[in-house]
Amino acid sequence: MTNIIPVTYGYARVSKTDDATRNLETQLHILQEFGIREEHIFADEMSGSSMSRPAWNELMTRVRPNDTVVVAWLDRFSRNFDEGVRIQADLTKQNVGIVAIRENINTADDSAAAKLFRRMMLAQGAYQVESTSERIKAGLDRARAEGRRPGRPLALTPEQVEECRRMYAETPSIRRVARIMKVSQGTVNRALELDPDPVGRD
User: Fold this and answer.
1) Structural contact between residues 121 and 72, judged by C-beta atoms closer than 8 angstroms
2) CA 22, CA 102: separation in Å to the nearest integer?
């Protein structure tokens, strides 16, 4: 019988509630530095509340006993504590290894202390996701209540915003205004409070 060579897969996940340090580019870089081939890396980009993870589901159809699934951070496996515990149990039952690079966790170490540490990391990761989501929502609600417009601060001074409006009133071309002000068209859109993807505007 032909021996099946174990495969090491990488998995990355990003959502709207993640901070900038866990963006997709960073996770992919960490996985590739670990030595995982690009074609063996799967990535999901979605809302943190979404129950659909197509890349993860595809990965789960690929893994076989003695394979390993690697993530940059342990909480990339799951969106909450209960799901993380279930995923670990399922993979362990299939004899699939789990590695979390940043926490230096490898399920090959099956000691009681290692098991406790993995559960603690999952709990911490779930707490971080939930608390970040709550902070973002509270900040947006507070900004709206104070009459402020949520979002990134403008890269223009109030005087420059007025100049943008004057130029746009004369010639309604976002591209022209952005070129003259030496900023992106998105910045001009926000300054003029226009649709971020205006239709029919140059």
Assistant:
1) no
2) 11
